[in-house]
């Protein structure tokens, strides 16, 4: 019996006619029956289709319509929280329901679902957390792992966890679990083999032809060449050719937005007006929406985006893509236990994805700010994260899910042995695991720590804060670090900014500075105007407060004294941080630069740090980034005497203060 659209939901609101029309014109709409039949027939189905063909928004709705929710919910996982939230909102609109009702989402620190939720969009990380409570994921009748080509650590681990859950549910005669893997065009055979030669369905997209242009000569400064290309095209092309420019990160996007605005002002009258739309994950969602809106007629839209617009979100109306050829990725520095954010060349697969964004509605053009020879030397595929990132969080999670030997876990691609071993070593130093021959178990502390959705280094710092009596402060610092940046930097006068920021600055470093900001924000009663006057990001600070509230709840469950404060004695706060971040210590050298303790990496203090000019002898850092030089970011001064107290086992190998 063909299901009726009207049966879909109880609480229906009218669906705008243009939304309905748009939905019915998507490529997946035409293959609906075939798709559903394949899914009914197979335990695992792999669906491949161009970005924008309607996979993420439509397929969950088809399944709901055909009664797949009878025995449980449909989970749809996304690697990025922003994608989970925006897609859930869109599907809520398309089904005429309020968000959190039939359609909900669940991302770290934010759960917008109720008992009536059937379609649950969530980050892959959240589903993994649920697997810690029930490794068979029995609340779900269908699990859709979306954007699988992204190959984040969490997605890869989830593939193994879901495969095991499906098998075990058969063995234990529980209701069957359907698994669907969705991806943009990528290495399909690999996924299919992993799932016992599961069938692959291709959805023909509506991709128009794309004209490809390469740079004639290789360019040293890709950012400069990108702006130059933007202006050359801006002079030549009609105003309704909107641009999508791929860049690497927030800072770069904000700087470029400023320089484009300045040059455009000088060209006033000679070229069409422009509307610049930044797009990156940390951007408040309201500001993100601007990129999806049509500009006034006669105005050119220029979207400056990170790789988020490669596949995660679709911007209609783009005719011209400008690809800088670079991407910011996290990768492990061999043998150090440290991850670093680094700008590097994209892969050929990514270059094709980026180009494809230009041909969604009509023929388009891509301008590659690199030569054809360079392109031919790009690697074919990006390296999956499990093969290049710190794995401590994941191993801790696998153990918490009940996987006894994570070394032998069924990975789609096995991480290198060295990465696994360094993760085990770090977890042992953090006091979270005990290894006995081949068997590895969580310690009591490890069990408690794994209930926090935090990097183990931060959860360790939290437990240390409990011992040292500064949980109140630690919760604020961790919440700020877990939010998406509290500073506003775009379109701001630098000098004014510095003078305002100095009000919050602490000589102890950035962590105490962030604490001061958070305390002042609370002191202002979370006032929007106050944030505006102080160049602080109101939404992200509210989000910080939300994160903090959730961490307090978890503290209550774990008997952590969440309101114990160290007052003005923030020394203990820095000591507690050191307990978690003991691998991230750097020592000043006579030559004026720093080296990381133990692994002897040469690093510099990032100019954004309040300690940039101070140059203390020892600092702990939160993050390593490479943009030309290697920089350490978010620092605190540490006293060398604290090091052996923070981790005697680790620091016994070093001779501190005897350079
Ligand atoms: O997953 P896939 O890339 O195949 O497509 P999708 O995310 O389901 O998007 C299909 C279409 O839905 C897009 O082309 C947009 O027109 C629309 N959409 C939207 O308007 N707002 C969103 N947040 C997501 C999608
Ligand atoms: Mg999608």
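^ structure tokens above, recovered residues below v
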């Amino acid at each position: 019996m063909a299901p009726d659209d009207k049966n879909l939901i109880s609480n229906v609101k009218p669906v705008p006619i243009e939304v309905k029309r748009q939905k019915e014109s998507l490529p997946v709409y035409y293959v609906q029956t075939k798709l559903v039949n394949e899914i009914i027939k197979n335990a695992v189905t792999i669906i491949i289709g161009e970005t924008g063909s309607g996979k993420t928004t439509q397929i969950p709705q088809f399944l709901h319509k055909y009664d797949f929710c009878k025995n449980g919910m449909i989970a749809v996982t996304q690697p990025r929280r922003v994608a989970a939230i925006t897609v859930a909102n869109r599907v809520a609109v398309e089904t005429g329901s309020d968000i959190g009702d039939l359609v909900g989402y669940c991302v770290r620190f934010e759960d917008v679902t109720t008992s009536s939720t059937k379609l649950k969009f969530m980050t892959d990380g959240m589903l993994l957390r649920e697997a810690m409570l029930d490794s068979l994921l029995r609340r779900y009748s269908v699990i859709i792992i979306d954007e699988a080509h992204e190959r984040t650590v969490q997605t890869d681990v989830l593939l193994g966890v879901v495969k095991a859950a499906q098998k075990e549910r058969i063995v234990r005669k529980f209701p069957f679990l359907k698994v669907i893997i969705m991806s943009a065009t990528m290495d399909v055979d690999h996924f299919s083999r992993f799932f016992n030669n599961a069938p692959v369905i291709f959805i023909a997209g509506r991709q128009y032809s794309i004209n490809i242009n390469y740079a004639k000569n290789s360019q040293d400064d890709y950012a400069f060449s990108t702006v130059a290309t933007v202006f050359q095209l801006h002079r030549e092309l009609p105003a309704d050719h909107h641009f999508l420019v791929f860049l690497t990160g927030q800072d770069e996007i904000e700087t470029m937005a400023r320089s484009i605005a300045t040059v455009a002002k000088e060209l006033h009258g000679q070229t069409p007006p422009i509307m610049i739309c930044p797009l990156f994950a940390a951007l408040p969602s309201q500001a993100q929406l601007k990129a999806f809106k049509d500009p006034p007629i006669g105005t050119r839209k220029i979207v400056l985006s990170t790789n988020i617009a490669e596949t995660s979100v679709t911007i209609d109306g783009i005719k011209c893509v400008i690809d800088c050829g670079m991407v910011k990725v996290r990768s492990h520095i061999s043998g150090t236990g440290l991850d670093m954010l680094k700008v590097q060349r994209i892969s050929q697969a990514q270059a094709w994805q980026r180009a494809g964004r230009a041909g969604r509605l009509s023929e388009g053009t891509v301008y590659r700010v690199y030569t054809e020879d360079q392109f031919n030397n790009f690697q074919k595929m990006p390296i999956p994260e499990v093969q290049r990132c710190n794995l401590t969080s994941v191993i801790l999670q696998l153990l918490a899910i009940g996987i006894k030997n994570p070394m032998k876990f069924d990975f789609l691609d096995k991480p290198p042995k060295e990465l696994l071993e360094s993760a085990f070593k770090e977890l042992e130093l953090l006091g979270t695991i005990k290894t006995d021959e081949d068997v590895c178990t969580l310690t009591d502390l490890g069990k408690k720590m794994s209930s926090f959705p935090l990097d183990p280094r931060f959860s360790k710092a939290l437990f240390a804060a409990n011992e040292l009596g500064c949980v109140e402060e630690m919760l604020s610092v961790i919440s700020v670090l877990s939010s998406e940046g509290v500073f506003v930097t775009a379109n701001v006068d630098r000098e004014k900014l510095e003078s305002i920021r100095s009000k919050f600055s602490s000589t102890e470093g950035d962590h105490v500075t962030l604490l001061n900001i958070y305390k002042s924000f609370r002191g202002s009663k979370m006032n929007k105007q106050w944030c505006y006057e102080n160049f602080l990001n109101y939404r992200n600070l509210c989000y910080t407060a939300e994160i903090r509230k959730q961490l307090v709840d978890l503290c209550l469950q774990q008997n952590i004294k969440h309101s114990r404060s160290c007052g003005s004695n923030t020394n203990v706060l820095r000591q507690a941080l050191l307990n978690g971040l003991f691998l991230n210590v750097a020592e000043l050298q006579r030559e004026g630069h720093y080296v990381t303790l133990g692994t002897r990496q040469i690093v510099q203090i990032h100019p954004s740090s309040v300690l940039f000019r101070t140059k203390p002898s020892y600092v702990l850092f939160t993050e390593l980034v490479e943009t030309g030089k290697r920089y350490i970011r978010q620092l605190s001064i540490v006293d060398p005497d604290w090091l052996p107290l923070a981790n005697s086992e680790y620091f016994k190998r070093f001779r501190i203060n005897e350079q």
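Confidence is low (pLDDT under 50) at residues 1-9.
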